[in-house]
Specification:
This protein is an alpha+beta fold. About 40% of the residues lie in helices and about 25% in strands. It contains 27 helices and 28 strands. Strand 24 (about 605-615), helix 23 (about 620-625) and strand 25 form a beta-alpha-beta unit. It binds ligand C2E and magnesium ion (2 copies). Ligand C2E binds near residues 690 and 694. One magnesium ion (MG) binds near residues 612, 632 and 668.
């Protein structure tokens, strides 16, 4: 029953007029009366609350410390108190809680003292407040995090900038340096003071100022945000620093560039190395011409273009006719000079779209494109040969050289690179066969007829097993007695289709593989067997010896000495009737190893002759080291093609030298009696040459034994 239900002072009206929910409670906390608003707020029928403990409206968890307990009933409420606590709530009938504020005051009515509890729903306010607090908290959090992150990233950036190994620069909109790191200072050879506030163009290679300004301009205009470009800086000492610069800009909100950050990579050495390597990889070190790798690449491209655009392409292979002669007579230095001068002359007549290449040794390749007819290729060949008409002169040496040229012309449906070069090679051999200074264009017939060195090596392998190889013997004559004292064994190849193939062609081919070892043991076996059949022609004379040519590869083969021992045993030949011919190239491979083999041969009593003497690099030192039984003076001194006077002086010097060293001196390639006379007068011991006889089959040697071979 409501306490003020019918109160004469109209208290009930007063309760209803108040804005919040109102409850009047006594000092024990019992609700005496309440207004409808509080009943509505809590969901209770008004009547139900009257007479109940106010605790019914307190959420269970708050009951202990709730205002009712703490302040409620016993407190001094002479002045109204307002409780404003974000946690305050009342418990509604449905179990939900309603956020509220409280205001307490005392009211005395009819000597009865009441506590007036005014309860205000502040759900919306509280939500707004919470939102504000949350938002505030969040903002603060964000700002704090951002500030910390910024500080951290600034710190990191500073470290990354200052301590960076890569040179770095901050510059302003006008390109003036704001900050530079130590690495940049080092790269430019300048201090911070010398750099700051200055424009990069002061340290830029003059030709690259334009590039630098262009990049700045384009970034500033917003055309791009960042760029990477190559430029050259100038070190304080004048050195050029080749660099790769990565540049980006920092912009304000409107997008205007505030400043630029550049990171620089010094690529000077990298560039130099790369350039050097790629140059070395693609050029011949002596002449500076394209090498085979570069030529191959150009040929690929040319073939693709000819296939696409029509017209004709051509490969010309040019080979000097007497390069070996020059090398032999004047040494390799003059030979090299000749090649360099030749390359220059050829280059002068090489069209800019064509490629000239040193193919190796004294061979040059010329690649031409866009030809209208094969005749044009022949014109190119003539142009190249014309450059040889003027003699070459180096110091006191005057040389004439001719060359042979093989041409292969191709169209869109060409063969591959290897086949084109092989065909040019075949044509060149045909040109050589026709005589010096010829030009031959490849035809399929030539392909069948002419020896292509590429095919030859395969056939040589076959030749050894099927009896196409044999040894011929050229007599060695005592120039005083004109008796045959020995024979040089020379290999011969009778090819079923090609006829005689000269050893100058197939021996170098065999030397490129182990095939030379097989040829070598064949030569030794045959020669020793032949020599063991040669008896002494009369009581005074010794039986003739045999000399066998060995290539450097054979000489250094560990199987050589055991093989010779075995062959000596098999043939029964006295070891001192075997003489091995080697060139100085043998010692060049490995002098210690050479001495070792020489010692073993000495022990066996097998002799050594130094072949082609006078054509090697450092004849005297190797002559002393090898200490051969015989030195064979090269034919180029006996039959000089160039500079006869000088050759004759050398001839005399070599004979005298050999005699002084107690070596037997043999002159090769004697063709005329005049040559013989001269050598005889110089005190040369032995001779060999067409004057007496070329190399003959083993069967014919018997006729020469015991005969005096005079002209
Ligand atoms: P080489 O050892 O200097 O042989 C001398 C060359 O001169 C031989 O050529 C011989 O036929 C030639 N000849 C001799 N007298 C005269 C002459 O009066 N006038 C001219 N114009 N030439 C003369 P060949 O037989 O063609 O041999 C060439 C080279 O091939 C040899 O030069 C030698 O280095 C090599 N060779 C030949 N047979 C063998 C072999 O069985 N093994 C090795 N490793 N090399 C060999
Ligand atoms: Mg020889
Ligand atoms: Mg020789």
């Amino acid at each position: 029953m409501r306490y003020f239900g019918n109160h004469p002072m109209g208290v009930q009206n007063l309760l209803e007029a108040l804005p919040g929910g109102i409850a009047l409670i006594d000092d024990h906390g019992i609700i005496g009366d309440l207004n409808q608003r509080l009943a509505d707020m809590t969901g209770y029928p008004l009547e139900e609350l009257v007479g109940r403990d106010i605790q019914i409206l307190v959420p269970p968890l708050q009951r202990d410390q709730h205002f009712m307990t703490r302040h409620g009933c016993a407190g001094d409420l002479s002045t109204p108190q307002i409780l404003h606590d974000p946690n305050l709530a009342i418990l509604c009938r449905d179990g939900s809680q309603l956020p509220v504020d409280f205001a307490f005051s005392r009211l005395s009515v009819d000597t009865q003292s009441w506590i007036v509890v005014e309860i205000r729903d502040n759900t919306t306010q509280r939500a707004a407040e919470e939102a504000r607090i949350m938002a505030e908290g969040h903002v603060i959090e964000i700002e704090a995090a951002a500030a910390a992150a910024l500080a951290q990233s600034e710190q990191r950036f500073r470290l990354a900038f200052e301590g960076n190994m890569a040179p770095m620069v901050f510059s302003d909109q006008d390109g003036l340096f704001l900050t530079v790191n130590d690495a940049f200072c080092r790269m430019s050879g300048r201090t911070q003071e010398e750099l700051l506030g200055r424009d990069s163009k002061h340290f830029t290679y003059p030709e690259d100022i334009g590039v630098t300004e262009d990049v700045y301009r384009r970034i500033k205009s917003g055309e791009m945000d960042q760029d990477r470009y190559g430029k050259r800086f100038l070190h304080k000492n004048g050195r050029i620093v080749v660099a790769e610069v990565s540049i980006c800009s920092a912009r304000d909100e409107s997008g205007a560039a505030l400043y630029f950050i550049s990171s620089v990579r010094d690529i000077t050495e990298e560039r130099a190395l790369a350039a050097q390597l790629s140059y070395q990889a693609l050029h011949d070190p002596l002449t500076g011409l394209a090498n085979r790798a570069l030529f191959d690449d150009r040929l690929d491209q040319a073939r693709a273009r000819v296939a696409r655009e029509g017209k004709l392409g051509a490969v010309l292979l040019l080979d000097l006719d007497d390069f070996k002669g020059v090398n032999d007579a004047y040494g390799h230095l003059v030979g090299d000079q000749l090649l360099v001068t030749l390359a220059n002359r050829f280059e002068q007549v090489t069209r800019s779209t064509d490629t000239l290449c040193r193919f190796g040794g004294d061979e040059f390749l010329y690649l031409a494109e866009g030809l209208a007819s094969p005749a044009e290729a022949e014109l190119i060949a003539e142009r190249l040969l014309e450059t040889l008409t003027e003699p070459f002169s180096f110091d006191q040496v005057r040389l004439e050289q001719r060359a042979s040229v093989g041409i292969v012309v191709w169209d869109g449906e060409s063969a591959d690179n290897v086949e084109l070069v092989q065909n040019a090679d075949a044509a060149m051999y045909e040109a050589k066969r026709q005589g010096h200074g010829h030009v031959v264009t490849f035809t399929p017939d030539i392909g069948h007829e002419v020896v292509s060195r590429f095919a030859l090596i395969k056939e040589l392998r076959h030749a050894l097993t099927c009896g196409e190889l044999s040894m011929h013997y050229q007599p060695i004559i005592d120039l005083t007695t004109t008796r045959v004292v020995g024979f040089e064994a020379l290999m011969r190849w009778q090819h079923p289709q090609r006829g005689w193939v000269p050893p100058d062609v197939f021996i170098p081919l065999a030397e490129q593989s182990d095939l030379i070892l097989e040829l070598g043991s064949f030569a030794l076996g045959e020669a020793m067997a032949a020599a063991s059949s040669w008896g002494a022609s009369d009581a005074q004379a010794d039986a003739p010896y045999v000399t066998v040519n060995l290539s450097a590869r054979q000489f250094h083969d560990p199987g050589l000495v055991p093989m010779i021992e075995a062959e000596l045993g098999r043939s029964g030949l006295e070891p001192d009737r075997l003489i091995l011919e080697v060139t100085e190239g043998v010692a060049l491979v490995d002098i210690v190893e050479t001495m070792n083999v020489m010692e073993q041969l000495n022990r066996l009593k097998v002799g050594v002759a130094l072949d082609d003497f006078g054509t090697g690099y450092s004849s005297l030192s190797y002559l002393a080291a090898l200490n051969p039984r015989i030195i064979k003076i090269d034919q180029s001194f006996v039959r000089p093609k160039h500079d006869r006077e000088r050759s004759d002086m050398l001839l005399e010097a070599i004979v005298t030298l050999g005699n002084k060293l107690n070596m037997t001196v043999l002159a090769e390639g004697i063709e005329t009696s005049a040559q013989l006379e001269r050598l005889h007068s110089l005190d040369c011991d032995l001779g060999q040459g067409f004057l007496w006889s070329p190399a003959v089959p083993a069967e014919e040697t018997a006729n020469m034994l015991g005969r005096l071979l005079d002209d």
